[in-house]
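COURSE: Structural Biology Practicum
ASSIGNMENT: Worksheet 4, Part C
STUDENT ID: 0417
INSTRUCTIONS: Below are two proteins. For each, the amino acid sequence is given first, followed by its structure token string. Answer the questions at the end about the second protein only.

PROTEIN I
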Amino acid sequence: MSTLLYALGRWSYRHSWRVLIAWLLLLGIAGGSAAVFMKGTDNSFSIPGTEAQAGLEQLSRSFPQASGTSAQLVIVADDGGRVDQAPYSTAIEDAIGQLENLDGVLAVTDPFDEMVTGLVSEDDDAAIVRLQFDGQATDVSAETKDQLRDISAELEDSLPAGAQVAIGGDLFSQSVPAVSLIEAVGVLVALFVLIITFRSIAVAWFPLISAIIGVGLAISLILVSTAFASISSTTPLLAIMLGLAVGIDYALFIVARHQDQVRDGVDPEESVARATGTAGSAVVFAGVTVLIALIGLSFAGIPFLTTMGIAASVAVAIAVLVAVSLTPALLGFSKGRVVGWKRRPRRAARRSDAAPDATEGTPARVRRGFADRWVTGVTRHPVITTVAVVAGLGALALPATTLTLALPNAGMQPTSSEARQAYDLTSEYFGPGFNGPLILTGTIVTSTDPLGLMQDLADEVESIPGVEEVALATPNETADTGIVQLIPTTAPDDPATADLVRELRSHHDEWLEQYGVDLKVTGFTAVAIDISDRLGEALVPFAIFVVGLSLILLMVVFRSIWVPIKAAVGYLLSVAAAFGVIALVFEQGVGADLLHVAKTGPIISFMPIILMGVLFGLAMDYEVFLVSRMREDYVHKVRALGGLHDREIAVGAVRSGFTASARVVTAAAVIMFSVFAAFIPEGDTAIKPIALGLAVGIAIDAFVVRMTLVPAVMALLGDKAWWMPRWLDRILPHFDIEGEAVERELALTDWPEPNSTAAVVAEGVRVSAGPTTLVEDAAVRVEPGGALIVTSEDPRSARALLLALAGRAPLEGAARVGGHLLPGREAWVRAHVGVALLDGSTQPLRDLRRALSGRPRIVVVEGLDALTPGSALEGASVALRDAAANAPGLVVLVSTTRPDAARALLVDAGWTEIGEVDVTVPEAAPSEPEPAGSTADTDDPESLLFPRRDAAPTDASATEVHA
């Protein structure tokens, strides 16, 4: 990965205009496609497999006039007026006539109809006109909604002064979020932070431009997808929020690394390549963690949430691609002008414990920044710091124990919204339950008295605590399905309403046995409750998934047990504290007015799972960038001291690593906090708690957990922080998070010698298959046009060496094949080295010809003995001769147990420079069980922290063959 990114960074730097134009073209094509094909977002919520959803589907088939979306007009008379008297009654009657003519309206309920009860308040000072539409809210056209608003406005104008008419209901319960100028403040804050961080106005624009292009492309693709998928209106806003935050931060990490390197004197082109290969590798890892967490939202099994996670992951994936390609291209425009203005020298502070100055005999003046002073204080008192942080975050998380969940409704909208006004008026004059009626439905085809049956069921339902009244109990026109519509005593998002739904469902078996009706509790309120319950049930499995994933990923990165455990515990503390702050604001009302919270109460149902997923990825970003630098410094110090392990060395590495990375991590956290916080004041009711949770979570995780708790715990652990059992190290894959392959390639640029002509060269090569070593300390060298014959007592050893040199098997040591270093460049080697595995092949000559096709520069022939004397050998000689004629300088590596026959074949095919090497089979070392708690693994820091890191070339005693 790192070597690929290294090459990509260099190419992008050299072709800046091409890369920029390519991304702009993609943005233009996606934007144009969105303008042509997008069909708008869909705010309907459904959850397959639940009782409420099954009930709605049953109603849509057998009772369509009760299954579609609904709306209502709430008419409130002025002081002293009565809605059942003129001019109110006549005006309402005229309005009903107009409403019945609207497109898509199935029925309009007249509150004064003799067959209707409950739609006029007890004091006759308010009335409700209900409309039933055909289909869901998304099926109602914008034109019909506008006509409905016009009729409502005309009705209010015709009534006496002081009267109120508000329109609401399920049709208007969801608001469409939009981006306002307030959100732009977050971008401006990010720009200011970037200017301070880079000390350059020009350079500060690079991460911002990258992020904006990436977000524009992601949103365009999301809007295009509305043509064939159902996407909620919250989805694009979440993608904008995440795309901006991670897009700026990912580009920031690469630009900051590049700027530091240029300031140290590295050539700008080389610096961009290195920064993309090193910091870019960390960016890819960080992006992958966010992607996995977002895709993990599908754990809940809720389609709209799965779609939201996939759409947000698209924004993150594009942010990663833009960061590793467009950012180097933008840096190519600036060339070496990225240093920025010089920092004003700070007055040095005198330290009494500093070393005496050699010339004056007085303590030397040592400059210490805030990061240095902070980490020194934290690591000097690690126990106190750890206890204080854990206790403080634990206390902040306590309010989260009362957190309740619900889907958004009109009651959560701002008071300026007409739907919110209708919601409040309905609650005031009819009771809160009128805003969320429940429906019981079932098949009654076996009943001989449908009307009597429905009345009996209504009496049963009305006797249940929590039911205000039964508004309707009737069979359909064909008398095969019945519905009971009831009004709860509590609001739709009240936990008591959810308890009522569960209570109604608990009577299912009783009513089935007594009345023979399989009743389902449904309605939009029941659907919302089922979604909230499903999301609540998914939190624990999702948390296990996220925490388990973090443990595995960080074990892969840091080759440690304690570092991942510490990171996972810190993540849980951050999430719990963020939940606590959300509960304080949105449920208890602390600071609610300051943040423009329209109404305190339950939190939007999908907030916890989205917050957990997103915060996991972002927390891992900070963990990687901070701890990887500590790990790097520790390894370097241990090597410099000849492998000495000591707690003081580990603590010193914690301090130096923290100081080196604190500036960039601080800037990244401030930027993310600013972007998320900008969506809080004027944000949509659905996005506001998510934005607050992310902003608080980022601030707590970055500054309290990662930059305070982490160095304290690392200081407590000392050198034990980097311990891992050997057996676990063997089974875990490796991810080059810090671009070790790039550093290795730079160190071996002139190996085996400057301007080397060797086609294949290797030193100190070791090849293993699990715990078994097949090749030990092998060395070869083949010039262009040469050949090499590999023999061994164990054919597996010869095969292993050839496959490793062909990029098909992992090796340790140093090897350069076709000018590309192994390991690290396996992808290129595999693509350019032909391989013929003849041992065991049914048609070895055909396989040889296939390997020689395509004019490869190097060919590996394993098991040459499979070619029988006669026509097969002659055919092989011809094939090799023809391949050499088509590709001058062709190199052939063969394995055989008959070297004389192989040499004769190669000579016959035209090769004159032929070398031979015998691979010595390593002696198997006796294996002993590792004692529990053994620290034998830690004897060698290189094997501990880089257990499979490629060894540098050595003057090995193995035979080196020049062909």
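PROTEIN II
(use this one for the questions)
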Amino acid sequence: MAKNLVIVESPAKAKTIEGYLGKDFIVKSSFGHVRDLPTKGDKVIDVDNDFTPTYVVSADKTQVISELKKLAKSCEEVWLATDDDREGEAISWHLKEALNLKDNTKRIVFREITKSAILKAIEQPRAIDMDLVNAQQARRIMDRLIGFELSPVLWSKVQKGLSAGRVQSVAVRLIVEREKEIEQHASIATFKVSALFDLPGKKVLKAELAKNFAKEGDALEFLKKCVGATFSIKSLETKPAKKTPAPPFTTSTLQQEASRKLGYAVATTMSIAQKLYESGRISYMRTDSTMLSQEARDKAKAAIESNYGEKFHHARQFKTKSDSAQEAHEAIRPTDFGMSTLSGDSRERKLYELIWKRSIASQMSDALLERTTAQIEISTTTEVLVAQGEVIAFEGFLKAYLEGKDDEDEDENKDMLPPLSVGQVLQLDELKAQERFSRAAPRYTEASLVKALEEKGIGRPSTYAPTISTIIKRAYVEKEDRAGKERTYQTWTLKDDEIAGVKATEIVGAEKSKLFPTHIGTLVTDFLVENFQEVVDYTFTAEMENEFDHIAQGKLPWVKLMKDFYGSFHKTIEDSKSIARSSVGGGRELGVDPETGKKISVRLGKFGPFVQLGESGEEDKPVFANLAKHHSIATLSLEDAIALLARPKLPREIGILDDKPVVIGAGKLGPYIKYDGKFTSLPEPNDPFTIELDQAVLVMQAALKAAESAGLGYFEDQLIETGKGRFGPYVKHNGKYISLGKTDNLTSLTQERAIELILAKRNAEANKMIKEFPENAAIKVVNGMYGPYIQIGKRNVKIPKDQDPASLTLEDCIALGDAAPAPKKTTRKK
């Protein structure tokens, strides 16, 4: 038996680390947290006794703890090697308590899983940092108290099954307020003037007027003045400029950039980064520091000089903006700068290359530019047209990487201007005044929401991904694509001294992977803002994060923070008992129906908001109609409600096609077309209550064409389709639906990955083995109807979600079998 037991959180991490340590060390996993606050009980948190928490070993960790206890007793030394952050420190403390280890048990930390980092950590053990543990405890206990006491208020005043949280409710508020801002935005039209000039050598010069015209008449008058005018270069100004690289990735900037450049959801990015960290490829992925160690900068320098040359290197140390960032920690970076790419999984490779490029670029020279501005005078007016362009004199860091932008219209790389001279007369091709419209602030993507939370100081690197996952899972927010709407705009063009006007249409407001608040999300937010302002206040939530930091730094006792918070919070909970439910989503009377004389109200029901005509006590049963997506309980008018009640009922048959009915219906995921046993989503702006057969046929044809051109193509002569269903995103092949894995998303799904999922589903249905162990070993890994499991003789052991069944070794299976709860004994009733 080994002399030393090292305990980490994940089996993948354990496997990597054990390879670096000698035969005197055995490395085991706790499979994450081992203790937590129980979900039920009166004294889970004893608020009258300094908020003393009661922790219990999680039901699925009893065997893990039992096995670790045996190993700890048989080893001379135990090393707690969980992650180097508050959560990791808390796991180490819970392990110490659950395993009855000594107070001086050795705690080791490292920010990358490399042999040198592990051996260095072994040489520099420390004790468990109780300040970090208490910071995590304070956060956990506060969040539990808010959830325990506030959620029942929502059940009684709004709707059963709802929940509230210190960070999640603030995140939903951001999305709700952005949606209201968009709804209230009144678009203002202006006319933007642009010009094209023909130059020798078939070159074209583009220029714009520095201002927009507020009125169409003014724009037209300007064009009239330009009829027969002479256009010439009034001035040329060239200035040197430079661009500086962005700092290395923090957790939030990695999430934002992976979303912009790779299309990854925040949770997907963190899952892939976790795998890269545990396999020793990158440093720890939860950090708000932009610092690089001297060793990392030296390695980056060697890689830059090798790949690009000496002149491309420029040493930098970025200062972290966040006051709470731990400067001893590093930014996310490769552990080996000499490795610019990886083999194997394509998603891991893409994310690794993004991290490598960003880290390398941060230590490269500035890009040197020349920016030229040309002013073009018009002989018949004092207005001046401006043409701008830039040329790269020295690429510098742009040779490796350029940071993405959230604003799609932001032009980072201006066109290079053709050769020009002062006084040069220009030949006008056309001068155009085009109607443009002001835009509301954009809806949040996952990445831009993370950015907003970070800027407001809400949450920390470890909380962004779970917060977003929680608000989507609880149906306060929807992440989806939405079709745009058609809009007409006016253009006036001066060409060959003739002015002509034309009206055209454009599609505006199309959304891709944006976050939309649901009706219930909006209602809960309005209720919390009105009655529990402190809980959803941006400043309060940010200040609370700072208080947790002060606890972690040993500057503030955690019990004092809890006492200061709980007094006023609990009083607000008690005061909320007087809130009338009828004032909160219980119903709002809109008026009387002019035809029947019955009351019309809008209410919130189990399946969402609806309009009700009549009351339940009347002779005739009430009539109901669901609200459309763009309606709101708070703003719905009587006229809107009457129109909703007048719509035909769904499902409705709209015609016959090839002797088969075409039916329009509505489900949890929105309206659909049902034909020949197949369902096609009915996208906006199609109205399920008015659409006719010919338009429905076009929608079905467009859906089939879109599926064919989605890049997934055919497999075994059958089209691979994708979509979102009741249980999440899926791949459809040969009539069968296959749910995507946790780290998959429709945006970045490839044909190769889709085929993997199809084959895995096929194997599962056939109950085929994923992996078979050495001959005579009575252990198999099987993919069953309810997921993968280990078959040990006649006993089945479920494989944890964070485990890859295909990579399990015989030793892993034995360990999981030992850690699993013993099967319950059953007795037959006589």
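ANSWER KEY EXCERPT:
Q1: Residues 767-819 form one domain.
Q2: The CA atoms of residues 782 and 788 lie 6 Å apart.
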